Amino acid sequence: MTLLLAGDIGGTKTILRLSEIADSPGISETSEAQTLRNIYEETFHSQDFPDLVPIVQQFLVKAKSATPQKACFAIAGPVVHNTAKLTNLAWYLDSERLQQELGIGSVSLINDFAAVGYGIFGLNSKHLVTLQPGKPKHDAPIAIIGAGTGLGQGFLIKQGEHYQVFPSEGGHADFAARNELEFRLMKYLLDKHDIQRVSVERVVSGMGIISIYQFLRDQKVAVESPDIAHIVRTWEQEAGKFEKSVDPAATIGTAALQKRDRLSEQTMQLFVEIYGAEAGNLAIKLLPYGGLYIAGGIAPKILPLMQEGSFLLNFTQKGRMRSLLEEIPIYIILNQQVGLIGAALYASRL
Q1: Which terminal residue of the chain has fewer beta carbons within 10 Å of its beta carbon, N or C?
Q2: How many other CB atoms are there within 10 angstroms of residue 194's CB atom?
């Protein structure tokens, strides 16, 4: 067995997991994942440490573990030539330095959304909800999209016996308004933020949920409830702070699920429609008959809203291309540690 260290490195928290995998796994990603066994896991507050090295050292002591042979760290931010500078931390990570200081034979850094791409092969039916069965095709491209803090996008292509993950910055493409309401939303965001363009991430993300709510509130589409108004106002007053004391997006989503606030319901309805349309935009470019996987923290939390029909309706609403999109399998990922699974599987190939 080979000892692996996987990490999910973010500005707020760092999650480390120790795993082992068979030395002679099968040739497919799925067979590799089936031999992966988790040994120990712990979460650390990133801001409490000056660098990743002391976190790993402390982790291995607590795990009472020998030094892993291989490690892969999924980074919330761009990775260039196995180096990364975290956006919200004064950390500069370099795989060669980490190898030397930690004594690990092979270390790699990958983007956190790329890790999700590798991690889908470690999921089983309990970790997935099928939105559209489609007509899966062997060896076809696979697409991933995920709304959370931002909007991640990527795709996988079969390369010989394995898939290779290609991360993307598709979340920063232009928001494509499709009707009068969405054009008004776009103008609202342009004026509010004094910007020249609106990215789709500004709408399809946790930040986007708040933006849609503010737009509908200011348009007086429905009466604002006092409790949600207080949370949103508190969040607005804390603008510029790294850590907020409230989470309006979660509050709005919960209120919509419970059908106790009309403005929240309309917010989430519009959010799901635009999310479905953007997923359809990605799918129509890639034709991912190997599956389109919806990752990120938002979809599992609003699962009934994702399943009620408007996501799929807007996903397939592409004119003459509708029949093509109806054949693409669509899955929602429920396992929020898919990135850790992917980091471990990537480490096993080093």
Answers
A1: N
A2: 6
Question: 181 exposed, middle or buried (CB, 10 Å; 0-12, 13-18, 19+)?
Answer: middle
Burial class (CB within 10 angstroms; exposed 0-12, middle 13-18, buried 19+) of 323: exposed
- Return the number of other C-beta atoms located less than 10 Å from residue 51's C-beta: 15
Question: From residue 237, how far is each of 232, 241, 245 by CA, in Å?
Answer: 9, 9, 11
Scanning the structure block, which residue is given the tokens 């699962």?
303
Q: What is the DSSP letter of 55?
A: H
Placement of tokens 């004026």 in the chain: 191
CA angle, residues 66, 67, 69, in degrees to nearest 5: 120
For 289, half-sphere exposure in the C-beta direction (CA atoms, 13 angstrom radius) is: 9
pLDDT tens-digit readout, 22-62: 876 555 666 667 788 899 999 999 989 999 999 999 999 99
The radius of gyration of the chain from alpha carbons, rounded to an integer in Å, stands at 21
Q: What are phi and psi of 69, to 5 degrees?
A: -75, -30
